[in-house]
Specification:
Blueprint (H helix, E strand, L loop, with lengths): L2 H9 L6 H4 L9 H8 L1 H17 L15 H29 L7 H27 L5 H13 L5 H6 L9 H20 L25 H6 L4 H9 L16 H25 L6 H4 L5 H26 L2 H13 L5 H49 L3 H4 L4 H43 L3 H25 L1
Helix pairs in contact: 4-6, 4-7, 5-6, 5-9, 7-9, 12-14, 12-16, 14-16, 14-18, 15-16, 16-18
Length: 470
């Protein structure tokens, strides 16, 4: 049984109709595609993000925060989510009633969609309650989910059919009303997610806490607008220590040092066990290495490294999309495609360019955080080691050597993080660029690659000579 037959059995209609979507004056999607993809995709994103954050938060149980107050904003979010659950439940009961008593056969995909939405909205309600209990002023995950749901279901929703005058007699009026209400509620949830709940005044410092990044809504995080206050204040005044905004608890030296110390102890225990197993054999010098500092850092701070790598890859992909969009836009000028295709091309061109800039900015921000945060943890570990040295061990090190560990060697380890990121990102970027050039230039692009290969050793030799002269 192929995929098309499976979709017909599950949906009783075709999974995708290209003519009704792309080759028509008003784009429409099939009910099967909307129920299986456009609805399940945002739900899958929410569940994946929830599981990922649940795994990452196991090591962050030591970070405590006061609960958030019950405000009009938080109450409105919870009420809308509860109404959303009721609407989906009413839709499920109506489908059962229509199938059994009204003899209107309902496809299996509709029941699957109702079950997925019901469980996902219950999860959203749970996340909102947990957000209040833990004192989190907003949820980046929920804001992404609501916004993605609104975007994915913009085409094909009952509200879209109403605005485009594409309603026909086959549309069930009750399901149409429930679908319109659900979409309006989700749209309201997406708008409310752009605002931040206030904190209890007893635990709240309006001069500083308001500008912590974790307290910012999704748009402020994406556009870095929470930095405007500090930049404007620094432009007019001299910034002192008390004027700097508070950092997140998971970026403080105490927390980072605890995580690094735990990862280092595990790495040290593994190295000791390997050394004891290889003791007396000829392979001690090869496999009996000491604990790896880089592995300990990766185990302690891997979420930041992984996020930076993902953003770097997305930037490499999105920066190559505009040339393809320009090709489609040029071909559109000489074709008889519907007019809305041109608007789509222009919008996608603007969107991909904007996203590539955002990905680059957040990638550099995460790489900077991934460098500064481990540096504080490493310095704390070095100070701890120096203070725990015995009198006999201190004679083996001079004061200058110990100072160089903090001032020079730690900085070299941090620079290694940038070097490792470039080690994998540059080859990927070169492969994507060569593939794009091959598409437009063919074999002629190999001439430029040959020149680049010849210039690389010359550039390296000149860099070595300049370094020696300095």
């Amino acid at each position: 049984m192929n995929g098309n037959q499976g979709s017909i059995i599950l949906c009783e209609t075709t999974f995708w109709d290209w003519d009704s979507f792309w080759n028509s004056s008003t784009p429409q999607v099939t009910n099967c595609f909307r129920q299986l993809v456009l609805i399940n995709l945002p739900c899958l994103v929410l569940w994946t993000a929830f599981l990922f954050t649940a795994i990452c938060s196991k090591a962050e149980s030591s970070i405590k925060s006061s609960p958030s107050p019950w405000t009009l904003l938080s109450f409105a979010k919870l009420t809308l989510t509860f109404l959303l659950i009721l609407c989906v439940g009413a839709e499920g009961f109506y489908l059962l009633y229509s199938d059994r008593y009204l003899m209107n056969h309902v496809a299996s995909v509709n029941y699957i969609s109702v079950c997925v939405r019901m469980t996902t909205f219950v999860l959203a309600l749970f996340l909102q309650l947990r957000q209040l209990r833990k004192g989190q002023l907003n949820s980046f995950i929920l804001a992404t989910f609501w916004s993605l749901y609104v975007i994915c279901n913009a085409v094909g929703s009952p509200l879209y059919l109403l605005l485009t005058d594409e309603l026909d007699e086959t549309v069930d009026s009750n399901l149409f009303i429930l679908g319109t209400v659900c979409y309006c509620i989700i749209l309201a949830e997406a708008i409310l997610s752009f605002f931040t709940d206030p904190q209890y005044s007893y635990f709240w410092d309006e001069k500083k806490d308001e500008y912590i990044m974790e307290h910012q809504p999704i748009l402020s995080r994406l556009l870095f607008s929470w930095l405007n206050r500090t930049i404007w204040y620094g432009f007019r005044n001299t910034i002192a220590t008390d004027d700097v905004d508070l950092i997140n608890p998971d970026m403080k030296t105490t927390y980072v040092h605890q995580r690094f110390q735990a990862a280092w102890m595990v790495e040290d225990a593994i190295a000791r066990s390997k050394r004891s197993d290889a003791e007396g054999s000829k392979t001690v010098g090869i496999f009996g290495r000491g604990p790896s500092l880089l592995i300990a850092l990766a185990k302690a701070l891997w979420p930041w490294f992984l996020a930076a790598a993902c953003l770097e890859f997305l930037y490499d992909v999105f920066v190559l999309i505009p040339p393809l969009i320009l090709e489609w836009l040029i071909n559109f000028m000489d074709s008889d495609e519907p007019a809305w295709h041109g608007y789509i091309y222009c919008f996608v061109l603007f969107l991909t360019t904007s996203l590539s800039v955002l990905f680059l900015a957040h990638d550099l921000n995460l790489l900077m955080i991934s460098s500064v945060v481990p540096r504080s943890g490493l310095k704390a570990a070095v100070y701890r080691k120096v203070l725990r040295l015995s009198s006999g061990s201190r004679r083996n090190y001079t004061v200058g050597e110990l100072c160089n560990l903090v001032a020079v060697d730690v900085q070299k380890v941090i620079e290694l993080i940038w070097a490792i990121n470039l080690t994998w990102s540059l080859p990927v970027n070169m492969i994507f660029t060569i593939a794009l050039l091959w598409r437009y230039l063919g074999i002629a692009c190999l001439a430029g690659i040959l020149v680049m290969i010849i210039v690389m050793p010359i550039t390296a030799k000149l860099a070595i000579m300049i370094h020696k002269l300095q």
